[in-house]
Each structure stands twice: as structure tokens, then as C-alpha cells.
Amino acid sequence: MLLLAVIHLGEEAYGVPICRELESHRGRSVSVGSVYAALERLENKGLIRSSLGDPTPERGGKAKRYFGITKEGLRLVRETRRVLMRLWEAIPELKLDLHQEG
Amino acid sequence: MQQRKLPPLTTWMLEHLTPGERDEALAGDLIEQFRAGRSAGWFRCQAVAAIALEWGRSLWRRLGAIFFAAIWSLLSPAWELEYLRHFRNGRLDDVMWRFPFPLSTICAVALGVARDMIFIWLGVLVYVMLCRISLGKLHLRRFGRAFLWSFLAYAVAGTLLIAIALVSGPYSYGRGVDWRTLTMIGVLKNITLGTATGYIPFFFGTAGALWVLSSITRRSAKVAA
Asked: What CATH number has the domain bearing residue A71?
């Protein structure tokens, strides 16, 4: 989900929009700290990269950390999508098998 | 438009109570969301959760160092026993107690602290060597700061221990046990709650130094916002 949010937001992917994106899709509040912890794990795995922006007054003089997807991250997202699609495609067959058994 | 005033205590906590390796981005995000209309309660909850999470993650990252500090502090009674056997009633001790009060007490305290710090830093050096062998990451340029943190942690824990001993009485190795005849294994066999508290300053002193030496910093390029 986080990787997809980072891809979707593109150049504007920093903490606040990422959290909003997650909240709008999940329908409930997320902890900013846990989002950062997950982003750090993804960064350590080389799936995303980050860079600090300039400090801004509306943020109390604190800088934004922008996130971007890496080639490896993009490859993983595509791979996950492919696997999920295959799994979803297998579901109707599964249902059919259950009806036949019943 | 006038900006909403940030809850001062929570802002202070965010700036001072985080382990120090997280950059300011998280605090900035919370401030931005608060100023965009989030409640003070939301800001407090998020800040406390972020601080707790960061400390948890910092502890988890340094689990090896903390485990080592605990094991190393278990050896402290052996160091103390060796010191007492060799230097108690020795020439240095004799000269020191001939000084007038309070110089004699100051010298005794300084000698005790130096003895304990040598033990703590022997442990740090052993850990550094172990990390070098296992290719672990350490920030060896931070030795000065590590020494300061180790001394502060040791001093705070030691002071607390003295305060506890003043209230509950001095600890001993148990009735009928002569410390002069104790071996390392004997010390571990005769461990009591009182004697176990003696390890605490050594643990905090060693852990304090290793915490600084193994802290993680994020390096990244600045881009225009």
C-alpha cells in the first residue's frame, strides 16, 4: 500500500500526503510514526529512496522528507500485482470446485 | 491568517525525547497536520506514539549492544573483588586516607569512579573488537560523546543506587560469606537482590557508550522544497 501511495503521489510524496492517501483508502486514521517506521524499512530494503527538502515556516521550520520509488521497488510492485492477479483469477475456479463438492 | 499555537509540552517532547537519529520530518508533518485543522488531542496522541515507536525501534536495533552490556556488567563483581584484593590496605589506599577531609573522600570517590570507568571501557573495547570481527557498524569517531554518555549514565545510576542503599541499608554477599574468599563463580552463586543492584551502574555505563557508538544516522541529499 505504501509503495502504491508513493508511486501515486509522485513528486509530492512526503509524510502528510502519504498519510492522507492511506487514510482515504483505508477509511481510518493512521499513526504517522508507524508510517515513517514502515517507510524506513522499505528504504533499508532499497525499495524507496528519500531526500530532505528545505525547512518551511508552516511546519515550524522543519524540512519535508520526500520519498520516491526505486527501480527495485517498481519491479516488486509489478511482481506483486502479477501474483495477486493470478490469485484473483484462481478464485472463481475455487468457488466452482466448492459448489461441485456441495 | 494567524497560525494555531502548538501544544508546548508535546512540541518539546517531540524535539527532545526522540532518540535523535530520526530527522525533523516527522515532527514537521505533525505540525503541518495540526495547523491544517487536526485537534490538539490528535497531535498529542500521534507525538506520544511516534516517540514510543522510535524508542522501541532504537532499542531493537541495539539489542546486541544491550545484551552485551548486561553480560559484561555481570563480570563487574570479579573486577571489584580483584581490585579490593590487590589495592585495599595497599600503599595507594594508605596514602589517600592520610589526606585531610574532604580531600581524602574526594580522592576515594575519584579512584572508585576511575576503577569502574576502566572496567566499563574495557567492555566497550571488547565490543568494538567483536563488531570489527563480525563487520558490524560502529561510529568510532564518537568516542568523546560515548565517553560522556557512559559517564553520565554511570553517575546517574550510581547516585540512585547510593540513595537506595542509604534508605534500605548497604548490600552484602549474605550472612557468613567472606568476600575475600569469593571467586567469580562464588559471587554469582551468592547473588542476592542487593548485590544484583550493584551491576546497574556498570550496565548503564556500558550501554550508554555502546548506544552512542552504534547510533544510526540518515544521510541524504537536500532537495529544493
From this structure: 1.10.10.10
* B4, B18, B29, B60, best to mutate vs chain A, most A CBs in 10 Å: B29
Q: What residues contact residue B208 under an 8 Å CB cut-off, 6+ apart?
A: B146, B149, B150, B151, B152, B153, B154
Domain count, chain A: 1
CB B21 within 8 A of CB B216: yes
> What tens digit of pLDDT does each residue of B172-225 get?
555 556 656 666 666 666 666 666 777 889 999 999 999 888 865 554 444 443
What is the reported pTM? 0.69
Q: Pick A52's closest partner by Cβ from B36, B50, B222.
A: B222
The domain limits of chain B are 8-61, 63-213
Range of the domain at A15: 2-101
pLDDT in tens, A60-95: 888 889 999 999 999 999 999 999 988 888 877 666
Of all residues in chain A, the one with the smallest CA distance to B24 is A62
Task: Please report how many Cα atoms fall inside a 13 Å half-sphere around the Cα of residue B94, on the Cβ side.
Answer: 4
DSSP state for residue B20 in the 8-state scheme: S
Whether B200 contacts chain A with CB within 8 A: no
